[in-house]
Write a structure and sequence with these properties.
Helix content is about 85%, strand content about 0%. The chain is an all-alpha fold. About 30% of the residues are buried.
């Protein structure tokens, strides 16, 4: 496994974790919340790309983490697009998408750390 790639993957994951908390506590109005949302989406996208590259290198050992990363990013994208388009009942897919992406992020942090230490 590429140590440099894993380093960047970890940085993007920690960034998404911290930015997600910042977005959660930011007032829900134009300004900080949407900016944190843009940063969260970018960090999740970069984390997914690095997760795919890492999974490709050790597919037989960590293939399932690729699918967790795919679902996490898919949910993040769903929440991000819902907030940007704001059509109809946009708040439900926005909140659900971001919530499930964050749960996936936490799951990967726990599972990835357990795999890394073994």
């Amino acid at each position: 496994m590429s140590e440099e790639l894993f380093f960047y993957h970890t940085i993007f994951g920690v960034a998404a974790f911290v930015i997600g908390i910042c977005a959660l506590v930011a007032p829900k109005r134009p300004g900080f919340h949407p900016r944190f949302g843009d940063l969260y989406h970018a960090a999740m996208a970069l984390m997914f790309v690095t997760a795919a590259a890492l999974a490709w290198q050790e597919w037989s050992r960590v293939f399932f983490l690729f699918f967790v990363a795919l679902l996490s990013y898919g949910f993040a994208l769903m929440g991000y697009v819902a907030a940007k388009r704001r059509r109809g009942e946009w708040l439900v897919p926005h909140v659900a998408g971001i919530l499930f992406s964050y749960v996936g992020l936490l799951l990967v942090l726990v599972l990835g750390g357990a795999l890394r230490s073994s």
